[in-house]
Amino acid sequence: MDSLVIEASRSSPAIRFDAGIRRLSISGESYPENAAAFYAPVFAWLKTFLAGLEPRTAVRVNLEVLYLNSSSTKVMLNFLDLMEQAAQDGVLVTVNWRYDPDNEAILECGQDFSEELHALTFNLVEQPWEPQ
Amino acid sequence: MSTLNLVHLQDELRRQGVLMCFSGPFSHSIIEELGKAVRHYLESAQVARSALMDVFAVYIEQAQNVSHYVCRQKAGVDQARLASSGIVVIAQEDRHCVISSGNLLDRADAPALTAQLERLRSLDKAGLKALYKEQMRQPLNPQGGAGLGLIDMARKSSAPLEYAFGAVDDRYVFFSLRVVI
After folding, report:
1. pLDDT at residue A127, rounded to an integer
2. What is the ipTM score, two decimals?
């Protein structure tokens, strides 16, 4: 299966989904004009990928978001729900939610998500922000 | 001479502590550009990063709410009038940042919005979080709206959301919303 690569824009994150090493990364900011439209190809890829996984295989999800607007938050929960479903089906899913300790909103957002998810492993990982 | 008096306009903006103001039809690229400018300004003013991101977040929700509301209205004679009624202002008041937005609103939409805002004003932090989580589970509407924006602003605001409806004409009121960080 081909990898999914979408470059970041100012209001949409970089997507790096690598089927070969089973690592899914989303990084950057997300406040696109229409979140459902932006993420539609991401969900299409993900559903095919998850359908092809055997139980007991490990998948790592790396989320390094600096900002999510409200509709992107909802989309991110849908994404995590799909990963949760895979975990319930026996896939070993680890999510690393990386947050800058100086950005409380993103830590709080990670905490909100972690309370909704039980079958997958959800780690809150502190990672100080570095100006580019 | 009846030309625009820039000095008076600038004095008034300064007197009201206005850091940034946009009035007119919002496009996605305008929302992006102004957001970038706001962040640069607050960074250079040494505003703490958490507060800076809260101001940015509230600005984005307000600007996208105005823009989505206007887009949802049926195309017609009033479309341009509605689109140009949008305004977002970021101002400094004492040690707080205040983000305010306004737009023309169909009178028919006012009761539901009032009920929603009054509900948010009555909730404490825990209540707002519970409502946020409940709303997070509702599907996105076709325009991409989440129905989460106002709750998110209420959670970030250091005071209950303030709002007003100003009389305009038989069809519209002017809705304004104020969030204090």
Report:
1. 87
2. 0.91
